[in-house]
Amino acid sequence: MSEMLNPILDAHGGLAYWESLDRIEVEFSAEGFLFTSKGIPPQRHARITVCTTRPEVTIHDYPQPGQTTRWLGDARVEVVDGGGRVVQSRERPRAAFGSWRKFFRWDALDFAYFSSYAMWGYLTAPFLFRREGVAVQTEPAGQGGTHLALTFPPDLPVHCAQQEFWFDASGHLLRLDYTAEVVGSWATAAHFCDEYRTFGGLSLPTRRRVYPKLLFGKPIRALTLVAIDIHNVVPHLKA
Length: 239
What we know:
Layout: H1 2-11, H2 15-19, E1 21-31, H3 33-37, E2 43-51, E3 57-60, E4 68-72, E5 76-80, E6 86-91, H4 108-124, E7 135-140, E8 146-151, E9 162-167, E10 173-179, E11 188-199, E12 202-212, E13 226-237
Antiparallel strand pairs: 1-2, 1-13, 2-3, 3-4, 4-5, 5-6, 7-8, 8-9, 9-10, 10-11, 11-12, 12-13
């Protein structure tokens, strides 16, 4: 596995650099059919802080300016005001998606949970693949690329346990396929990545487009579920 995974890690900045980081600050915009269907407005130049060592994300100025939302893995999501007082919170936020109302509209904590765990997974890959309990199967793909079939452990907050990733010959991520289980068991998606940029020593795709997937893996490109554009990333070294 290492022989095929190490070049991918190197193409994203290298394992040694990643392990020197404590967090990354990210400015991005996001929109798409999923936002519209759940009653969530497009996010324009949103700012988040992503922990690189554990599943934690801070969303700045959300859901209101001056407020901060903190995602603490599957244990809790909370909103605090400018003085640090908790004004909203939800324990075990993933379990809350079992309610039928989640099929029609999300509240601020629903969206905070979904967007936080999704962005954490996107921005920590492929280094995420080396976490304890993650099983990785590698095989060559076309034109010198690599296909990875991953199984994530149940205690890791990701879209679903079984996911597939495709990388090109340079080690850059082209596509990942998954089921967004909090949306529904039917929510299979093909997620495409491009426009790599380097921020500090970290290299990552800045343009992501997610489409629903038909049988045999064919995406429906006429319907964009989620469009993410990353404007800036600031890596922070451990103290």
